[in-house]
Amino acid sequence: MPDSRVLPAPSEVLSTPRSDTPDTVLDGVDWPGPTLLLAAVLILAWTVSGAADGRLLGGSLATLVTLLTGLVWITLEHLRFRARDRVGR
């Protein structure tokens, strides 16, 4: 019985073709959604810090639009990944 702690030779690893590549952690991450949520938090901080300067209405609208866009983007990507996984089965 071979020792399971022994690694295969590099030539064996390179010569073994893989028909499918495994998913990594970052394959399922869609960067525009989280980026938009981060932008919404930054815009909110900018709005709150400058509320006395008259930035309250514009900053609030920008925060709301950015936040909703980020949430919708993440929701649509989640649904797309779930549909892709269902089709793959």
UniProtKB/TrEMBL annotation:
Residues 1-25 are annotated as: Disordered. Keywords: Membrane, Transmembrane, Transmembrane helix. The chain crosses the membrane at residues 31-49, 56-76. It comes from the Bacteria. This is DUF2530 domain-containing protein. It comes from Nocardia yunnanensis.
